[in-house]
Amino acid sequence: MSLVAFNKPYGVVSQFTPEGRWQGLCDFLTLPEFRVAGRLDADSEGLLLLTDNGSLQARIAEPKHKLPKCYWAQVEGIPDEAALAHLRAGPVLNDGPTQACVVSVLPEDVEARCLWPRNPPIRFRKSIPTTWLSVTLTEGRNRQVKRMCAAVGLPVLRLVRVSVGGVQLLELNNGQPLVLGTSTEISVNQLNGSNA
Asked: Which CATH number does 1-64+165-196 carry?
């Protein structure tokens, strides 16, 4: 059984076939027997896992397995403690309440230190500051992080998935981030959070 980590750029759908204006994974990967395990929207970036094993795909993708997934969200504005507490508690969305999650504010320089420039860049508004949040979920609804942040008054400008289980995107290249648009084979042990 094989497992591959891919650093998905903005503008790429989580399928091999391109769709409309979005590129497909076929523009970056040649893995005919592999399937995406846990999708990312075309306008989101970061860690996407692919596998050739159906059971492993289900374990990664299906929320019932509660595999933690961490996202860094650049939001518009500066959240106050009430907004952060509401986000942590799990706001109610149009499809029901969300589960509690782990949320923290990231250092201001996290984008410059750890991430690649997005192409195209996010809209810049001089009079409105932005904040980077780390959000770790164990459920996986459609556009969940974006909808949760919007529900507490924090529109998401950029969203990057940085980990799934024990797989850390920012450490997959000899302790450095996996280069945007590239992939590497990983082990199930990494997914489980062990090095054995």
From this structure: 3.30.70.580
Rounded to two decimals, what is the model's pTM?
0.94
Confirm whether 52 is a catalytic residue: no
Q: What is the pLDDT of residues 155-188, one digit of tens each?
A: 999 999 999 999 999 988 877 888 999 999 998 8
- Which of 69, 134, 71, 72 is CA-nearest to residue 104? 134
Catalytic residue among 27, 41, 52, 80: 41
Average pLDDT over residues 117-135: 90
- For domain 68-163, which CATH number applies: 3.20.20.60, 3.40.50.300, 3.30.70.1560, 3.90.226.10? 3.30.70.1560
